[in-house]
Each structure stands twice: as structure tokens, then as C-alpha cells.
Specification:
alpha+beta; two-stranded antiparallel ribbon; 69% helix; rod-shaped; transmembrane helix; XrtA_polysacc_chain
């Protein structure tokens, strides 16, 4: 404890040696600081409070029909970007601050000052935001807060509307592009179908292999029916040729057609061979051409033979009801055989054509599938784009609706009649305290730069030598008077400094707008 007391006494003695330096520094800093504080312009804080209502009945009603904008995120984004440089420059134009800037450097300085002075407070949970601005001109502060409030409201509406318009424009361009692609795909598909009409699968008829199998089955069925018709016809012929004579008029001569059973058999055999060849080859094959020529010759012989008629030995043959009925049946059977033969030929030609085209069908089907796939993809994308365009338009209309995002001004922009700053009482005191601390610090620093021994103990500790004694100062009367005067002047200067401080504080309290 004694050491601490000794150290403190030495510290006070060191400062006391350079007390006039401390007083001079304290007076200089205090006077200059107080003058600056008193000359600081008054600051008026303009403020406004706004409530953003993001709850709307349109949200549940239009949910699923369009893209609902995230209003909370939109408002938060506007709050965080409200004091951006573009918005502040717009604010300067709205309140005519830009005309006061003489050059670009001064303009940038004004922008930076505005950014530092504008404050936005609030919570996303309550959706209540406060905009404040400190200005030396009350009217200017109110105009700036009013303009900021306008930018805040307009920015919340305009951003989403502009995004929606750009989205609709982009989708329109894509729709035009897909319309061209869809038209080109339709034309390509139409031209391909016209070019390959016979090779394309029919609707409900299956693929090409199914058509070939169906044609082959139909040909086999037609041949079976032809064979049955020929057998029925031959049976009728045999009945006509071997029917016994029926009673009739005596002496009447009846002529009947001449038939050759061997010729009929040859014609039937040739027809069967020709049908079998047609299942394997085309009509231009040499075997088919030779058999067809032979069949034509046999049919010609049959026709010539039919022209020669012989007299019937049956005197009542001309009046036989059974013969007449058989003749009618034979005519019907011949017609049926002819129609069945035509059907067989048609089916055989169809099967031959399908077999000839069977090599081209896989490639045609692959190309058709590719064309249909491209057309379907373009069509689906086109339909989706149409739906998205309507959704984007509805979303844009929804974003611009005032019911979706309502702004309610709780407190309009106001400016208090009394200045809110600067806090001269606090600054005045801080200047005084700083001046005192600076004076003491200067005195202590000088004592350290120009050290002296203020006691025997300090001299003994520094030198390490024993101190035998000390010589006291013998003050004369004149020196004593001079010393007292200096001490009185020091006390008066300190008291005057404190008096000025007290007077300044009283003046500030009595005149807040000082």
C-alpha cells in the first residue's frame, strides 16, 4: 500500500511540474471542442411507419391455378434493397438534391451521405417497418421519407409485374418457335404418308405382318371355297351327263352340250398349280406366266367343245323337269366358281404384293414412328407452353392486384418541432473530459521525456548509490509571493474552465435549439 501511495505521489508531482502545459492543452482543446459542438447544426429526425399486409383471400382461391408470388420474400427483398444506390439516386431526383451537386464527385458524396443517414427498422414477423432520416432541414427530411415510402410501395408492385411481362414475352417467342416446328412436323408427316400410302399400317388393322397373315388366311379360305364350288359344279355336271331319259313327246330330238371329263380335270389341275405358284412368286414369274397361258388354252378348248352339241337319245329329254333344274343349278355353280376364282386371284395378288413390300416395311415403320414421336413431342411442348403462358399472365395480373399486397401507413412522414440531435450536453461533457485527459496525458508524457528525481528514494533506486543527505530550497520573500501568484493563477484558470463548462451546460439546457 505504501508503494502504491508513493507511486501515486510521484505521478502527481511529475504532472505538477508541467502543470502549465496541462492547463494550456486543456484550455485549447476545450475551447475548440466547445465551439465545434455549439456550431453543430440541429438534426431533425423524420420518420414514417408502414404495415405490409401479405395475407389475402385470393391466395386460397387461386391456389393451383397459377404461380403464387412469395409476398413475404418480396417485401423483405425490397426492404433490404431500398437503400441501394439506384434507389438513392432516384430519391435525389425526386427531392431535387441532384441539382445541388456541382460535379460527379460531389454527387457521389451526397449519395454516400444519404445511404449512411437513412435507416430502416422492422421485423419480418410483424410486417411493420419504420423509415427514418436525420436532416438539418425539417422539410427536406419529410420529403425524403415520403419519397422513400413511395419507392418502397412502387418497388413491391413493379418488380413482379415486370418479371411476369418478361416471362410472358419469352413464352410467346417459344410458342412461335414451336408453332413453326409443329407445322413443319405436320407437313413432313403428311408428305411421308402420301408417299408411302400402301406400306403404312391401317387404323385398327394392326401392323404389316398382321396384314400379311390376314391376307394369307383369306387366300387359303378363298381357295377352300373355290375347291368346294368346283366340286359342287362337277357333281352337277356328272348328274346331267348320266341322268336317265324321262318320258316325253315321241319322236322329239333334244340337243345337249358335249363335255370332256379329261379336259375338265386338266383345267382343275392347272388352276391348282397356278394358285400354288402365286403364293410363292409374283405374276411375272415364268412358271406363273406358262401356267396361265396353258389355262387360257384349256379354257378356249372347253369353250369350242361347248359349241358342238349332240342329239340326245332320250325322246323326252327336252321335257325333263330334273334336267332343267340341274341346268339352272349348273349355271349358278359356274357363276359361283367364276366369282370365287376372281376372289382367289385378288387375294393371291394381294399376298404377292405384301410379300414384295415386306422388305421396305420395317424401314417405313421406323421412319413413321420417328416422325410421330417428333410430332408428339412438339405438340406436347406446345400445349405446355400455352398453359404456362396463361398461368404467367394470371400470375402477373395477380401480382399487380392491390388486394394481394396491401400497404397501410400507420404513421405518415412527420418531423418533430424540437431537434433530435446532436446531443450537445453529452458532446459538451465529452469534450471537457477529453480536454482534461489530454492535458494530464501531455504533462505526464513530458515528465517521461524529461525525467527528474523528485525524491531521495527515487534517486537511490535508479543509481543504486546511498544518498547521504539532501539540501532544501530556501525561498526568498519575492520568490514566495511569485509562487503564490502562480498557484492562484493556476487555480483561477481551472475554476474559470469549470465555470465556462457549467455556463455552457446551462445555456444548452435553456436553449435546446441552440
Amino acid at each position: 500500500m505504501a508503494e502504491i501511495t508513493a507511486t501515486l505521489l510521484n505521478f502527481l508531482k511529475a504532472i505538477g511540474k508541467y502543470r502549465w502545459y496541462a492547463v494550456a492543452i486543456t484550455w485549447t482543446i476545450a475551447v475548440i471542442g466547445w465551439a465545434v459542438v455549439l456550431r453543430l447544426p440541429n438534426q431533425y429526425e423524420a420518420s414514417a411507419r408502414v404495415y405490409v399486409d401479405t395475407q389475402s383471400i385470393l391466395k386460397p382461391l387461386l391456389s393451383g391455378m397459377t404461380t403464387m408470388p412469395n409476398l413475404d420474400q418480396q417485401v423483405v427483398f425490397m426492404r433490404r434493397t431500398l437503400i441501394s444506390r439506384p434507389n438513392v439516386e432516384r430519391l435525389m431526383r425526386m427531392v431535387d438534391l441532384d441539382v445541388k451537386a456541382k460535379d460527379s464527385k460531389e454527387h457521389e458524396k451526397m449519395v454516400d451521405e444519404l445511404i449512411s443517414q437513412i435507416k430502416i427498422a422492422g421485423t419480418e414477423r410483424d410486417d411493420i417497418y419504420t423509415i427514418t432520416y436525420n436532416a438539418s432541414n425539417p422539410k427536406l427530411g419529410k420529403d425524403i421519407v415520403q419519397s422513400l415510402l413511395q419507392i418502397f410501395v412502387e418497388g413491391s408492385y413493379g418488380g413482379k409485374t415486370q418479371d411476369s411481362e418478361k416471362a410472358v414475352q419469352f413464352i410467346d417467342n417459344q410458342i412461335k418457335s414451336y408453332e413453326e416446328k409443329l407445322t413443319a412436323a405436320e407437313n413432313s408427316l403428311k408428305e411421308f404418308k402420301i408417299k408411302n400410302m400402301g406400306l403404312l399400317p391401317r387404323e385398327g388393322g394392326g401392323d404389316f405382318s398382321g396384314q400379311l397373315i390376314a391376307a394369307t388366311d383369306a387366300l387359303s379360305q378363298a381357295r377352300l371355297e373355290l375347291a368346294e364350288a368346283e366340286q359342287a359344279r362337277n357333281a352337277i355336271r356328272r348328274q346331267i351327263s348320266g341322268e336317265p331319259a324321262k318320258p316325253g313327246k315321241s319322236g322329239e330330238v333334244v340337243e345337249i352340250p358335249v363335255t370332256d371329263p379329261e379336259l375338265e380335270n386338266r383345267i382343275a389341275t392347272t388352276q391348282k398349280n397356278l394358285d400354288a405358284l402365286r403364293l410363292q412368286y409374283t405374276e411375272q414369274h415364268p412358271d406363273i406366266v406358262a401356267n396361265r397361258r396353258l389355262l387360257d388354252q384349256l379354257l378356249a378348248q372347253k369353250a369350242d367343245l361347248a359349241k358342238n352339241k349332240k342329239r340326245s337319245a332320250d325322246p323326252g329329254a327336252g321335257y325333263s323337269p330334273m334336267l332343267q333344274q340341274l341346268s339352272v343349278s349348273l349355271s349358278q355353280a359356274e357363276a359361283h366358281v367364276a366369282s370365287m376364282r376372281t376372289r382367289v386371284e385378288e387375294y393371291a395378288a394381294r399376298v404377292a404384293r405384301l410379300r414384295t413390300q415386306s422388305g421396305q416395311v420395317p424401314e417405313v415403320e421406323a421412319q413413321l414412328a420417328q416422325l410421330n414421336r417428333d410430332y408428339q413431342v412438339n405438340k406436347e411442348n406446345y400445349q405446355k407452353l400455352l398453359e404456362r403462358r396463361e398461368s404467367a399472365r394470371l400470375s402477373g395480373d395477380l401480382s399487380s392486384a392491390t388486394d394481394m399486397l396491401a400497404f397501410r401507413v400507420i404513421d405518415p412522414p412527420i418531423v418533430p418541432t424540437q431537434p433530435t440531435g446532436p446531443n450537445r450536453l453529452r458532446l459538451f461533457s465529452l469534450v471537457f473530459a477529453g480536454a482534461l485527459a489530454a492535458g494530464i496525458a501531455v504533462a505526464f508524457l513530458m515528465s517521461q521525456l524529461r525525467p527528474t528525481f523528485l525524491s531521495q528514494a527515487t534517486l537511490r533506486e535508479v543509481t543504486g548509490l546511498p544518498v547521504l543527505g539532501s539540501i532544501g530550497m530556501n525561498w526568498t520573500a519575492e520568490q514566495t509571493v511569485r509562487r503564490k501568484r502562480r498557484l492562484a493563477a493556476l487555480g483561477v484558470s481551472v475554476l474559470v474552465l469549470f465555470g465556462i463548462y457549467g455556463a455552457g451546460m446551462a445555456a444548452i439546457l435553456s436553449h435546446p435549439t441552440l
